[in-house]
Amino acid sequence: MIPVLDYEEFRHGDRAGFVKAFGKACRDTGFLVLTGHGIASTQVNGLFDQARAFFAMPQDAKDRLSINQSPHNRGYARAGDESLDEKSGVFDVKEAYNIGLDFAPDDPRILAGEPYRGVNLWPDLPAFRDTLLSYFDAVLALGVDLHRAIALDLGLPETWFAPHFEVPIATLRLLRYPAAAAAPGSIGAGAHSDYGSVTLLMTDGVPGLQVKPRGGDWMDVPQVPGGFVMNIGDMLMRWTNDTYVSTPHRVVRPPQERYSAAFFLEPKPDTVVSALPGFETEAKYPPITSATYLTQRLKATYAQK
């Protein structure tokens, strides 16, 4: 039910075949595994090395970078800070660290107070910043490029989405999940759907991610070495008037310590997300800007804390 697709086919092979299979996955479960993406294993391994170094820092050093200091969703979140399953009231045991586009403090967009235009909070670790920004830029380019396939599948011009992702809201989130034995009965990340357009997740190979297709039971997402788990977010579901599905997923407590890196891609802050051309009949959602929707969802995640 969760296909493995080779993105090299879209770039230099059977484009029509890729788009057909890609669109089917976006409609059926909203999940797929993407190989052939061109991001080297050395770059991925370097990222996970830096993630392990960061989460091994003393707690007080991590707390100095607390996400509570940033109105722009950047910085460190302690285990227990977030409740992704907003209805359950159960807090996640994961640790997380976020960066976004690396704006300078005097960037005009920051000075103008644009939402989600902020500075990153960096730890004092050798090579950490350069490694994360290099990976961030590579996955950002991939995520933006994927919207060409999305546009073609939806019957739109191939570049239809390009203006909405020129300087998007984008977040790279490093995640650490302790082994199940460390906190029996707890949840790594509660059941939730993602907020943006698409998510590109790289894992260290340790299982734990599960998805719940509409009308189905929880199922494990396949582990494909070097493959990105890609899923549809709420904003793209709203854009397509529920033609694409943003499917609930969770991380159960893994048998051993687990690391992953999630890249969340949203349109630029002032993009108005409303039903796309050809999908306006009986629109299910009112228009809303990307920044407003993201703020609503983040507030719900942190509200109980």
Description:
The structure is a single chain. The chain has a single domain (4-303), classed as Jelly Rolls. The chain contains 8 helices and 14 strands. The chain has helices at 7-12, 15-28, 41-55, 59-63, 108-111, 128-153, 234-239, 290-303; strands at 4-6, 31-35, 75-77, 95-99, 169-177, 189-192, 198-203, 209-211, 219-220, 228-232, 249-251, 258-266, 272-273, 288-289. The protein has an 8-stranded mixed beta sheet. Strands 6-11-8-9 form a 4-stranded antiparallel beta sheet, with no helix packed on it. The two termini are 36 Å apart.
How would the blueprint of this fold be written?
Elements: E1 4-6, H1 7-12, H2 15-28, E2 31-35, H3 41-55, H4 59-63, E3 75-77, E4 95-99, H5 108-111, H6 128-153, E5 169-177, E6 189-192, E7 198-203, E8 209-211, E9 219-220, E10 228-232, H7 234-239, E11 249-251, E12 258-266, E13 272-273, E14 288-289, H8 290-303
Quick gist of this model?
The protein has one domain (4-303): Sandwich (Jelly Rolls). Helices cover 30% and strands 20% of the residues. It has eight helices and 14 strands.
* CATH class group: Mainly Beta
Number of strands: 14
Structural class: alpha+beta
What CATH architecture would you give?
A: Sandwich
Using only CA atoms, what is the Rg? 18 Å
CA-CA gap between termini: 36 Å
- In terms of DSSP E residues, the strand content is 15-25%
Overall average pLDDT: 94
Please, how many domains? 1
The oligomeric state is single chain
Question: Order of strands across the widest beta sheet?
Answer: 1-2-10-7-12-5-4-3
